[in-house]
Amino acid sequence: MTKPEAERSAVIVAGVVIVVLTAAAFWLSYAHLADVARANGLAVSSARRWAWPATLDLFIIAGEVLMFLAALRGQVDPWAIVLTALGSVGSISLNVAGVGTGQPVLHYVVAAVPPSAALLAFGALMRQVHGLVARTTPEPVPIEEPAERVTVERVPDLAPELPGLAPEPAAEPTPTPSAPPALRPALPAVPVALVDHARKVADAHRNATGTDIDTETLRVRLGVPPILADAIAAQLA
C-alpha cells in the first residue's frame, strides 16, 4: 500500500468513527433533553416533549452543515461557527442543568459528555476536511510576460567624396519591409501537478457529458488566466 492510499484509508476510517460517535452523542443528548422537557411542563404531550430539543439541536446541525460546505470550498463561515457554538453551549448547559441540584458529580459528567463529544468529533472532522482541501488545491503559477521585441535599423555610412573622382550614383533606397504580424506570446511552462489535476477535471467532464472539455470551461474550473489555460489545453491535447 502506497502512502497516499494509506492516508486515504485512515481518513475514511476516521470519518466513519466520527460520524458514528456524533450520531450516538446526538441521540443521547436529544433523549436527555426530552426527559428534561417532560419534567418541566411538557409531560402532557409526548410529541412536544420530543420536538422541543429540536429547537436547540437543529441550530447545531445547520451550523455544522454550513461549516462543512465552507470547508469544502477552503473558506471559513463565521455565521456557521456562531450557530454551532451557541447551539453546542446551550445543549451542554441544558443537559447539565436538567440533572438538578444536589446530585452526585458523575450525574453532571454523564449529562455533559454526549454534547461535548459531538462538538469535539465535529471539530476533528473539520480539521481533516481543511487538510484535504489544502493538499488538493493547486498553487497559483506565476506567469512571465513575453519580452517586447525591439527592431533596430542600421543606417549606412556615407562615404566621403574625394577630389577628382566622380561621385558614385546614389543607391536607390531599399524599401523597408513591412512589420511582421504580431507574434503570439509563448505559452508558459505548466507544473506537472497542475497538468495532472487538469487531466482529472477533463476526464470527469468527459464522463459526465460525453464530450471533451473546451479551453474556456477548463479555465473556469481551474481558476487560472487564459494564457495558462491555453498552455494546459496544449498539454492535454
From TrEMBL:
Segments of skewed composition (Low complexity): 159-169
Keyword Membrane: yes
Keyword ATP-binding in annotation: no
Biased composition (Pro residues): 170-183
Spans through the membrane: 12-30, 50-72, 79-99, 105-125
Organism from which the protein derives: Streptantibioticus silvisoli
This protein's name: DUF2637 domain-containing protein
Tree of life domain: Bacteria
Keywords, in A-Z order: Membrane, Transmembrane, Transmembrane helix
One Pfam short name: DUF2637
InterPro entries, A to Z: DUF2637 (IPR021235)
Annotated spans, Disordered: 159-185
